[in-house]
Each structure stands twice: as C-alpha cells, then as structure tokens.
Amino acid sequence: MKHIEISRLFASAEPSSAMLAKIALILSLVSLSLGGIAATIVGLTRSTLAVLVDPLGYYRWLTVHGLNMLILWLPIFEVAALYTIMSIFIRSRPASPIIAWIGHLLIITGWFLLNWSAFTAPPVLYTAYTPLATSPSFYIGYELLSVGVLIAGSIYIATLIKSESKNSLIPWAGGVAAVIAIATALNGIIAFLLPLSQLLGLVSNSNPLYYHWIFWGFGHDAQYINASATVLAWYLLLALGSGLALLKFVSSPLAKLGLILLMIFVTPGIGHHILVDPMYSIIFKNASGNIGSHFLATGSMVSAFSILSALETMIRSTRRVETLFGWIRAIPWRNPGFAGAIFSMILFAVGGVSSINMTSMPTNVNLHNTMWVPGHFHFIVAGGTSLAFMALSYYIVPALFNKRLYSVKLAIAQIYLSFIGISIQGSSMLILGWEGAPRRTYLPPDIMLQQWIYPSIALGIGAIIFITSGVLYFVNILLTILGRSTFNIEEGLLEDLDDSVNRPLNKKGSLAIITIIFIASLAIFIINLLRLSLSPALIR
Amino acid sequence: MDRHDKIAISMIFLLSLLLAIISSIWQASTMPNIPRESFDIDPRTALELARGFARNYSDGVVPPGVDIYITGIQWAWIPNNIKIKAGVTYRFIFMSSDVVHGLEIIGPKGVVYSLMVMPGMAYVAYLRFDEPGVYEIRCNEYCGIGHQDMIGRIEVVR
Prior knowledge:
The complex is a heterodimer of chains A (540) and B (158). Chain A is 73% helix and 0% strand. Chain A is mostly helical. Chain B is an alpha+beta fold and 158 residues long. Chain B is built from 2 helices and 10 strands, in the order H-E-H-E-E-E-E-E-E-E-E-E. Chain B has helices at residues 3-27, 43-56, and strands at 37-40, 68-73, 76-78, 81-85, 89-96, 101-106, 112-117, 121-128, 133-139, 151-157. At the A-B interface, helix 3, helix 7, helix 8, helix 9 and helix 12 of A face helix 1, strand 6, strand 7, strand 8 and strand 9 of B. Strand 1 (537-538) of chain A pairs antiparallel with strand 8 (121-128) of chain B.
C-alpha cells in the first residue's frame, strides 16, 4: 500500500524540472567528491598522521576543500532539491525554462572558474579576505555562481506562486529555502564586486572591514539555505521513510513558524562575524552580533521541536510505548530515512549548542578563529546537513534516475560510520579550539603546543572514518546510477507503520529533549564565562 | 498549536533572551572583553610605530605607563618578544601593516584573547595580565603561505 503510494508520487514526476534537478545533483556530487579528496589531504596533514603537503599545498587544498564543501556542494544540492520538489511535489515545469537553463549555465561556468582558480591561482581560502588578492577569475566565478543561484531561487518562487500546492508543507518549506538563497546570492553579488573592481583598477582601495561584513552576508546566509534545506530534508526523510505517515502528525503552523524564524533572523544574525573587528561601535555589535545572533537559534530549535514531536506522536500512536524516552528505542533505527534524520539532528544539536559561545561578545574573544569554529560548523554542515542530504539521496537518486538503490545495507553502514566519524572529528576540533589552537593554520609538530598533539591525532582518526563512509556513499550511488534494474522502492527504505490506531497525543519526550538543550546551552556558556577570568582583564 | 508546543516555544525564546541579557551585562563590566576604542591609522605609520617600540624596549621589562605597539606584517609580529609586569595595566595598540591578521594571545593555561587586526585601523586596549608566565601571540586569520610562522611572545613577570 505504502509502496504504491510512494512509487506513484515518484512516477508522476514532471520531466523538465527533473532534468534540471539531475544536472544540479551531479554537479553537487562532483563537488562533494572533490571536497572529500581535499579533506583527506588536509585532514591527514593537519592531524600529523601523514604530512602530505607543504604550506603552499596545504592552503591550496584547504581552499579547494572549503570552496567545494561549503560553497559548491551544499548550495548546488539545494538547487537540485528545489527542482526535485518542483518536479515531484508541485509537478510543474519551471516558470520560465529558458531562464532556468541560463541559471544552470551560469552555475556550471562559475563552478569551473572557481575550481580552476583554486587549483592554479595564489590560495586565498574560500573567504578571500581583502587586501589578499588572487586571480580575477576567482571573483568572476563567485559572481556567476551567485547570479545562477539567484535565478534558481527566483524560478522556484515564481513556480510556487502559480501552483495550487503552494500551502502544503514541503513546497512551502522549499519557498523559505529559496528566499534565503536569493538573499544570499544578492549579498554575494555585492561582496565580490568590491575586490573585483579593485583588481580591474576601477577603485583604488576597498575597505577590508566592508568586505568582511558583506562576505559573511553571503557566507553565513549560505549556511542558512543549508539550515532551512536541512530542516526540509528531515521532514522529507521521515516522511519518505514512514511512507508519508509522518506528515499527518506535523503541526503545520509550528513547522511554518520554525522556518519563518530562520528567515527573519538570518541577515541580522551575521553580526557575530564582526564581534572582534575594529571600528564598529559596541552598541552596533551588541544589537547585531550578540542579540540578533542569539535569536538565530530560535528557528532551528523550533523546527527541531516540530519534527521531534511529530516523530514522537507518530511512534506513540503506532507502537505501544508509555515511558518518557521509550519511543526513542521504538524508532526504526535500521531504516536509512529515520537513522539519517535522527543522527543528523543529534549532530546539528551539538553544533548548535557549541555556537552559543561564539555569538556572545566576551566568549567570542576567547574562541574567535580557533579550531572551535570549524568544530562547530563540521558538526552542523558535515554532520547535520551533509548526512541528511546523503541519506536523502538514497531516496531521490533512484527516483530521478529511475533505478533501484544498489544496497540498503551499505546505506545504513554509511550513515552509522559517518555519525561516528564526525562525532570524533568534531569533538577533537572543539577541544583543540578550547585549548587555543588557531584554525586554518598549517601546524607541523615543531610549532604545535603540547596540549594540541593528542586532539590533533584524534581529529585525523575521526576524519579517516568519515571519509571512509563517504567512499561507501559514492560506491552505492554510482552503482545505483550505473545499475540496470528499474526504479522500485526497496523494502528496507520504507517502514510500514500502522497509523490508523489512535492514541492520545503526547509530546513530553520532545519537550524533555528541548529542556536538555536549554540546560546544556546555558551551562557551556557559563563555564566559558567563568574560564575567561584567566585571560587578560580589559580595564578600559 | 497545543500546550506542549507553546511551552517549547517559550523555552526557546527564553534561552535566547537569557543569553543576550547575560552577555550584555558582562560586556558593561571590566571583565575580559572586546576593546571599545579604535582609530584610523596609515599602515606605514603602524609599521614605524611598532619598529620604534621594538628598538626601544627589546631588552628588559616595559616600564608601566609606556604604550605598547604590536603590528602584524607578512609574516611576523613586530615586536615579536616583549617583557611586561604582571598586575600592571598597559595601553596596547594592535595594528596591521598589510593584510588582515588575527591577533591571538594564548595564555599559559591555553586561554585565548583574540582580535582581528586590519590595515588602516588600530585597536586600543587597556589590558592587565594577572597571571605570570609566557603568553604566545599567534596569527589566527589566514594571511598568506607564511601564516603559521607568525609566532611572538609576551613574557609576564612579577
């Protein structure tokens, strides 16, 4: 029954949007593999398990890693996800196919220019802070990519407005991701004009302060396309994994509130990137960095509660569980949809709690630009977002390519290994940051402080496990695409939940989890404040 | 939305509000914090001031009341080795002479004090180091391929 329902959903996909989705999907997967190769080189060198490159090589591969993982794999996968929703849930052609294809062409050209510059021009990392300069093709690549993403987001909104299904949750959530994508792309277009016009001799001097601010309007907003797309991926994973049963338990106003909050606070919240920059007034920093950024967390937390409580009520109403956390054990842990969504949510929550210490001024002084920062965002984007996207592609790739998933067991193995790997790696990074290790720095053993040596080795071990899981993922996806069997939703991908039984709704377990996050956030923040008495006192 | 939803939403907003309030109160105090004062400066002047300071105070403890200039250049801190007295408040001026650097002071117990220094701008901080020992200054913002070599020392003596 469920199988038929899901198969029918995928079978009625609209082909022209599906084609755009497929191209973006392939490009994003190429970025992921390139970023993964770079991760191997950077991770092994940084951990000193195998110092493979010299400083120039290290910064070059670090540029390739950051660029492909944060700027290419995630936003381009999101473009793929938007066209997939357009194809499967809205079942519509793009509002203007020609403009949509122009957008794709710009994204592809931008992709090549960016990667070509990253491999050949002087490395400036993906942030390219002025006055450090690199070849103009790098900034032009960024401009083209930004315009391409702007087009994809606008096409999605235009298609959504015309459609009849615009108020159902998944197309609507895609709309939020598209709005954030548009804001991001606009910031990107402005930010990269500054260094570009200076290189071309149009202006004599660009202020590093403005670039730093507007770049993060692009760089951090881009991570909020991720956040909204990750939330969307959680809904999709649990919905597909449960044969759409979950959607009956989602409170639509609560889900929409969570997404709206993400959208409202995303741009004001970028101020935490300039907390330790000179020149800005303390009042400005406090309003944007401190207050605005703390409220950034509300969107993902409300969304997390919305999803958890839907999951909890679904499990409670289909299986007999009475205790506060009994429903967690009753979750089908061997289903890629459920395991992927829940592991991703756990990692996202750890990353979220670790962010508290960076959005507040005093604790930012303590952790700014240390390894705490990559620790935080590896939990969020490598753990939370990438794991959710990888799990989701076990459902999307077979549907788009009309193939059967090669192996469900391999998929489950990948999800568990990824979870273990990124937990070890991310925790090691947080420890390194707490101990003061600077981020983005080539650190051979002779210039490492004593307390950084063991956490660095642990980082390498975690990275090796995570990269291994990435290889399993690629093997599975490649064998799926190259396979001969036609689409048929696999037994292990779908959980048959009998949702006809009605028991009273109970969300106490989810409320308890939010309480745990509440206490953990306050605790880690206060511990950090108390530890600050060891650093020099600012008298005036 | 039911009762549980409303409790969850209130808790989430309360958390953000609490964090914002605690850090706003903290930053009004003299606890470790972000400096409030900065001014425009020519990058060449920034370099000259730091070189002048390094010439005058390369040996011995910097006397209380003397301003301390520290400037980042690709790829070193100037001066890269100073001695100061514990428990005395000094006026530090942190600057950059070329690109964006990250000034990170790592204390003997691994606790960091970190600021961004940018060309054309100077940070003024009145700092008091209470804990004697060797503090390292490292660069924590990528500034070119010699970035990892920017290591300086502040020795805090009784």
